From TrEMBL, chain A:
<feature type="domain" description="Aldehyde dehydrogenase">
    <location>
        <begin position="34"/>
        <end position="477"/>
    </location>
</feature>
<dbReference type="InterPro" id="IPR016161">
    <property type="entry name" value="Ald_DH/histidinol_DH"/>
</dbReference>
<comment type="similarity">
    <text>Belongs to the aldehyde dehydrogenase family.</text>
</comment>
<dbReference type="GO" id="GO:0016620">
    <property type="term" value="F:oxidoreductase activity, acting on the aldehyde or oxo group of donors, NAD or NADP as acceptor"/>
</dbReference>
<dbReference type="InterPro" id="IPR016162">
    <property type="entry name" value="Ald_DH_N"/>
</dbReference>
<dbReference type="InterPro" id="IPR015590">
    <property type="entry name" value="Aldehyde_DH_dom"/>
</dbReference>
<dbReference type="InterPro" id="IPR016163">
    <property type="entry name" value="Ald_DH_C"/>
</dbReference>
<keyword id="KW-0560">Oxidoreductase</keyword>
<dbReference type="Pfam" id="PF00171">
    <property type="entry name" value="Aldedh"/>
</dbReference>
<protein>
    <submittedName>
        <fullName>Betaine-aldehyde dehydrogenase</fullName>
    </submittedName>
</protein>
<dbReference type="InterPro" id="IPR016160">
    <property type="entry name" value="Ald_DH_CS_CYS"/>
</dbReference>
Length: 478, 319
């Protein structure tokens, strides 16, 4: 639909962020090269431009970082909570002050639209540090008995879909409770964690309390397996999560896993249709669908299927895909060539298995990794695209006739992270939400996050909760 | 586009009685206030710059219903308003004319003369504006007077009391009667006074009620109450006209009125139009701004785009 009202490009300036040609590992308050001198490149998914060269952590570096964290733990855990809170509040304020810089950086390194890093990621990152800063001196009153103790050194491995936000989810509660941290960001998005290392220095955080080790899966595995790590926290794929569970089994390490999902977004016939359409869009096209709690299965009541799909298709035709730094971009780039290949393969399998594929007319840029927003109709529970997590902008549409059927289909998955309910009837929201086996159930909204609200999964979506008072428990000896 | 459109016959059935009409209006999809406002806010973050901004400003100027609705209106003031509508910026004759001037019925003849030959329309708020609390024959007489004096458009207010009391058919019948009084000579804009309808569900119902009764335009408000046009209620009405056209094939215009003062706000409304109802609504046949102070800000922004400098309020006419 060509418009008489074309928006001129409105790119956010890149000059607010200064990316160095190379970065080291952040160990014991200093940037250092990897022990074996290895480096890797990080590229911008929207252009394939090399942004920087980053030191690649190996086993020796992991050991060095864990030792630094262990040493720092003594002093850090002995500080009064109110002192730790000061550092966390300071970090939160620096994040706010540098939020534009960090938003642009995250968009460059991850490929997601500046609109999302600016309006969703960064405000939430700051909010998490503020929230857990508030808890640091109130742990006695958190419901875990008097004087709950920190665990020690936390080994944390985070994914590439929300690099800085996942860092905040991990580091803020760990520090508030008196633990020290060794964190491994994903190999495709290490930059914002390295900028965070700089923020730690800016905030005067004692050396060794936070250590950042960019690297690949081997570094993550070494960190998880390190005998002097007391707590492992992982967000990422279910396959890696299972491996980590096996590694940690039989040790005294505490473990939380936040893994994949195949969220059901259930739309009843009395739903507020226009807002449900927005919620479906937010549910699956936010961050190009690279969200573990994405509403990737749309369960729509049969009686309104046609009307809803027509509205949804019309709405998808207005999505703007392109330069993630353009403030008007709704859909950015897929994070990596590897991820693009996976999405492409699963979509092709959906077609091969007989589902009907639809995408709005949409021109994809010639360089970078792109995938048009995609809708599959005529999907059944037996289709691969209704079962496997695609982690991309691909929505599978299924139908149901009764609330019981909706619940049965929603729960018929190996995952259990999120779900959505759309209806004007309050009693139905409560009744259905109680029956859904999902860590988060949104009603008449989707993909809303808040630091005060716990987040985590059932079944193969993992265990443990992050965020809220519950999020403290994972870092305390209770 | 519509594949499941009920026939016009089916829609005429809904006005057969008070109860069928009520059932129809209450059967419309609900509105989730949080979601609606979030969507309006997110469209408000579109960044409109350079050529798009210049286009949007000219488009917005051409959509303004330049309005004076004061007890103190004089023929002189109305003539000045008419002159400004025709040439909003005397220093730059490339500036488009506004869509219309909007006046009380007794000023229609004066306004008509002031804009004669320019293509600028004369709109009049008839039907016991702004409260609408008068007998139907009084309202109809008001409309006939305005139409006889040459009004091209009638802005009617609905009986909010009847609407809130659930007497939908009474409201419907009034709109039908006013539309009839407009005849072929005037387009009818139906004003809901959304601030008094209070809930978004009511605004959606009123929108459908107005359209079923034959409104050519649905309009948010009179500009005489505390809450007038907002991005959210305008978005909602744009969804209603979009859905109505999908069902019936009939296109209805939308006019937010009151409280839109800056170019930035106006451009946000154009974004709502563009991305909700679609480009088919992006001209002054289908979208209007009811705003008196908006025009000068648009003109100042236009001058700034042309000269690179911000000139200030003394470089545009006061009325």
């Amino acid at each position: 639909m060509a418009s008489v009202f074309e928006y001129a490009p409105a790119p956010e300036s890149r000059s607010v962020v200064d990316i160095a040609p190379s970065y080291g590992l952040f160990i014991d308050g200093e940037f250092a090269e990897a022990a074996d001198g290895k480096v890797f490149k990080t590229v911008s998914p929207s252009t394939e431009e090399v942004l920087s060269e980053v030191a690649q952590a190996g086993e020796a570096d992991v050991d060095r970082a864990v030792r630094a964290a262990r040493k720092a733990f003594e002093k850090w855990s002995a500080l009064p909570g109110s002192e730790r809170a000061k550092y966390l509040f300071r970090i939160a304020r620096i994040i706010q002050e540098r939020s534009r810089e960090l938003a642009v950086l995250e968009t460059l390194d991850n490929g997601k639209p500046i609109k999302e890093t600016r309006d969703a990621d960064l405000p939430l990152v700051a909010a998490h540090f503020f929230y857990y800063a508030g808890w640091a001196d109130k742990l006695d009153h958190a419901g875990f008995g008097t004087n709950p103790r920190p665990l020690g050194v936390a080994g944390q491995v985070i994914p590439w879909n929300f690099p800085l936000l996942m860092l905040a989810w991990k580091i803020a509660p760990a520090l508030a409770t008196g633990n020290t941290v060794v964190l491994k960001p994903a190999e495709t998005t290490p930059l914002s964690a390295l900028f965070f290392a700089d923020i730690c220095r800016q905030a005067g955080l004692p050396k060794g309390v936070v250590n950042i080790l960019p690297g690949y899966g081997d570094a993550g595995a070494a960190l998880v397996a390190h005998p002097d790590v007391n707590k492992v926290a992982f967000t990422g794929s279910t396959a890696v999560g299972k491996e980590i569970a096996r590694t940690v089994a039989g040790t005294r390490k505490k473990l939380t896993l936040e893994l994949g999902g195949k969220g059901a977004n259930i739309v009843f016939d009395d739903a507020p249709i226009d807002q449900a359409v927005e919620g479906i869009v937010t549910g699956i096209f936010f961050n190009q669908g690279q969200v573990c709690c994405a509403g990737s299965r749309l369960l729509v009541q049969e009686s309104i299927q046609e009307e809803l799909l027509e509205s949804l298709k019309r709405r998808l035709s207005t999505l703007r895909l392109g330069d993630p730094l353009d403030k008007n971009t709704d859909i950015g780039a897929i994070n990596s060539a590897e991820q693009l290949a996976r999405i492409t393969a699963l979509a092709e399998q959906g077609e091969a298995e007989g589902a009907e594929r639809w995408s709005p007319a949409c021109e994809l840029p010639t360089s970078g990794y792109w995938f048009a927003p995609t809708l599959f109709t005529n999907v059944t529970q037996a289709h691969t695209i209704a079962r496997d997590e695609i982690f991309g902008p691909v929505l599978s549409v299924l139908t149901f006739r009764t609330p019981d059927e909706a619940v049965a289909k929603a729960n018929n998955t190996q995952y259990g992270l999120s779900a959505g309910i759309w209806t004007e009837k309050g009693s139905r929201i409560l009744a259905v939400a109680n029956k859904l086996r999902a860590g988060v159930v949104w009603s008449n909204t989707f993909n809303k996050f808040d630091p005060t609200s716990p987040f985590g999964g059932y079944k193969e979506s993992g265990f443990g909760r992050e965020g809220g008072r519950h999020g403290l428990e994972a870092y305390l000896d209770v | 586009m519509p594949t499941t459109a009920p026939t016009a016959h089916a829609l005429s059935d809904v006005t057969a009685s008070d109860s069928t009409l009520r059932r129809f209006l209450h059967g419309l999809p609900g509105v989730d206030a949080v979601g609606l406002e979030a969507r309006a806010a997110s469209l408000g973050t579109r960044s409109i710059k350079t050529t798009a901004k210049a286009y949007a400003i000219d488009l917005a100027i051409s959509m303004v219903d330049l309005t004076t609705l004061e007890g103190a209106d004089t023929p002189g003031k109305v003539r000045a308003l008419g002159a400004k509508a025709v040439h909003p910026d005397p220093t730059d004759r490339t500036t488009p004319a506004t869509a219309a001037v909007c006046v009380y019925p007794d000023m229609v003849a004066v306004a008509k003369e002031a804009v004669a030959g320019s293509g600028v329309k004369v709109a009049s708020v008839a039907t016991a504006f702004p409260a609408g609390r008068a007998a139907l024959d009084v309202k109809l007489a008001d409309v006939r007077d305005a139409v006889a004096a040459g009004a091209d458009e009638i802005d009617m207010v609905i009986d909010r009391g009847a609407f809130l009391a659930g007497k939908y058919l009474k409201v419907y019948d009034e709109i039908v009667a006013v539309k009839q009084a407009c005849g072929d000579r005037a387009r009818l804009k139906v004003i809901f006074e959304t601030g008094e309808l209070s809930t978004y569900d009511n605004i959606r119902r009123a929108s459908w009620l107005g359209m079923l009764a034959g409104a050519d335009f649905i309009k948010t408000s009179t500009g005489k109450v505390a809450v007038n046009a907002t991005p959210a209620n305008t978005l909602l009405m744009l969804e209603a006209v979009r859905d109505f056209r999908a069902q019936t094939g009939v296109q209805v215009g939308v006019k937010p009125a009151g409280g839109i003062r800056t170019s930035k706000d106006a451009i946000k409304f154009l974004v709502l139009v563009n991305e909700t109802a679609g480009p088919d609504w992006l001209d002054n046949t289908w979208f209007r701004f009811g705003a008196s102070s908006l025009l000068n800000d648009l003109l100042m922004q236009r001058q700034k785009l042309a000269t690179g400098r911000y000139s200030g309020p003394d470089y545009v006419t006061v009325d």
